[in-house]
Amino acid sequence: MISSKYISLLHENQTPFYFYNMELLQTTLAAVKHAADSRNYVIHYAVKANANERILKTIASYGFGADCVSGNEVKAALSAGFSPRDIVFAGVGKSDQEIDYALRKNIFCFHCESVQELEVINRIAGIQGKRALVALRINPDVSANTHAHITTGTRGNKFGLSPTELDQALGLIPSLNNLRLIGFHFHIGSQITNMEVFEQLAHRINELQAQFFANIPMPYLNVGGGLGVNYTNPEEQPIPNFEEYFSTFHSNLKLPMGQRVHFELGRSVVAQCGCLVTKVLYVKGDELKKFVVVDAGMNDLIRPALYNAVHKIVNISSHSTPEYYDVVGPICETTDCFAHDIQLPETVRGDLLTILSAGAYGEVMSSRYNLREKPLAVYSTSIKEVYNKVGLT
Ligand SMILES: Cc1ncc(COP(=O)(O)O)c(C=O)c1O
Ligand SMILES: N[C@@H](CCCC[NH3+])C(=O)O
C-alpha cells in the first residue's frame, strides 16, 4: 500500500510513471547487506532487474557489486559507481565488442556459457595483453518450480554448460593461456519462493564440486539470484526474507577451503520499492463485464502480458463499494491487460491506480510499442538525501 504521505506527490505528476519509494529501497538494501555480510557472502546486484540511474547509484552506494548481461549494463554500472573489480558479466550471447569493452574496463570476471565463448575471450584477452578471469556457468538440471518462461537451469534451457560441454571446457582451458578459471556459476530461474528449490540447488552444487573440482578447488562460487517476492500481498512482506534465503545455502553448501559464495539478486532487491501509477481514462462495459481503461499499457509494464504475472492494483482515489473489473491499457493487443476480474472500489474516470511490486523488470522492460512515450520515474526522496544517509556526498 502506498503510504498516505506520498499521495499528494503522486497527484502532482503526469501519468503514467514509475514511483520509487527510496526509503524502502534503502531498508531492503540494509537488510540484504546485513544478512550477507554476517555470512561473508558477496552480492552482485542483477542490473537487468532495474537499471534506472538513481536506483543503480543508490545500490552502488551500499558497496554491492553488479551482475551485468550486456556491454551497456557494464557501462551503466560503471557510471553509477560500481567498482569494475566487483562487476561480473554473464549471458549466452556476449558479442566480441562487448567482451572487448568489458575487458578494457577491467571487470572482475566473465561467466562463460559455451566452449566457443572461452576461445573468443582468450583471443581478445591476448590482443589486450591481459589474462581474463572466467567462471563456467553450469546448467545443473534443477527445476526452479516457477513460471516456465523464467526457468533457466533445466536441461533444454539455453543457459550454461551441460556436463558434456563442461568436460570439453575443462579439457580446453589449460591450453587457453590468456584465461584463468576461478570458479563456476549457476542461476536456475527467477521468482522462486520455495526454499527447497535452493536446497536442491545447493546439493547439486555439492555433487558437481565433488565430481569435477575435487582436485582443483576454486575460490569462486556464484549461485545466481532468483529469490522471489510476494506479489499478491506486497504489504504483508515488503522486504523478502533474506535471512532464510542465505541460511538455506549456508546450511546446505559444502564449500572447499577458501571458497567464497557470491549471489546475483535482482527482483528481491527492487521489486517492492516500485509501483506504476496510472490514471483511469474510461470505464466501459455492460452487465457481463466492466473494463477500467487506464493510461498505462503493456509497453510500460509487460509482465502481466508476458507471464500472466499478478500485480496487486490499488485505487488510491476511491473508497466506494467494491465492484469487479478488468484493468486494461490502451495498446492494440488483447493481452494488454493488467488484471482480470479484480475487485476495486467503484472506479471512475480520473481515479489514480497504483500497480504494485513493479520495481523489478518493470521500467527496464518498457518499450515504445504503438509509439507511446516511455514512462517517467518519480522518487520519494532526492538522491542527496539518500547519499547523506549512507555518508556519501
Ligand atoms: C544469470 C542471472 N543472474 C541473476 C538474475 C537475477 O535474478 P532475480 O531477479 O530473480 O534475482 C538473472 C535473472 O533471472 C539471471 O539470468
Ligand atoms: N523478466 C522476468 C524475469 C527474467 C529474469 C531474467 N533472467 C520477470 O519479469 O519476471
Automatic annotation (TrEMBL):
The keyword Electron transport does not apply. The modification N6-(pyridoxal phosphate)lysine is found at K48. Its cofactor is pyridoxal 5'-phosphate. Pyridoxal 5'-phosphate binds at G226, E264, L265, G266, R267, Y361. Pathway: Amino-acid biosynthesis; L-lysine biosynthesis via DAP pathway; L-lysine from DL-2,6-diaminopimelate: step 1/1. The active site is at C332 (proton donor). One of its GO terms (molecular function) is pyridoxal phosphate binding. Substrate binds at R267, R303, Y307, E333, Y361. Belongs to the Orn/Lys/Arg decarboxylase class-II family. LysA subfamily. HAMAP family: LysA (MF_02120). PANTHER family: DIAMINOPIMELATE DECARBOXYLASE, GROUP IV DECARBOXYLASE. SUPFAM superfamilies: Alanine racemase C-terminal domain-like, PLP-binding barrel. Specifically catalyzes the decarboxylation of meso-diaminopimelate (meso-DAP) to L-lysine. Residues 31-271 form the Orn/DAP/Arg decarboxylase 2 N-terminal domain. The gene is lysA. GO terms for biological process: lysine biosynthetic process via diaminopimelate. Its EC number is 4.1.1.20. It holds the Pfam family Orn_Arg_deC_N. Homodimer. Gene3D superfamilies: Alanine racemase (3.20.20.10), Lyase, Ornithine Decarboxylase, Chain A, domain 1 (2.40.37.10). CDD domains: PLPDE_III_DapDC. It catalyses: meso-2,6-diaminopimelate + H(+) = L-lysine + CO2. This is Diaminopimelate decarboxylase. Keywords: Amino-acid biosynthesis, Decarboxylase, Lyase, Lysine biosynthesis, Pyridoxal phosphate.
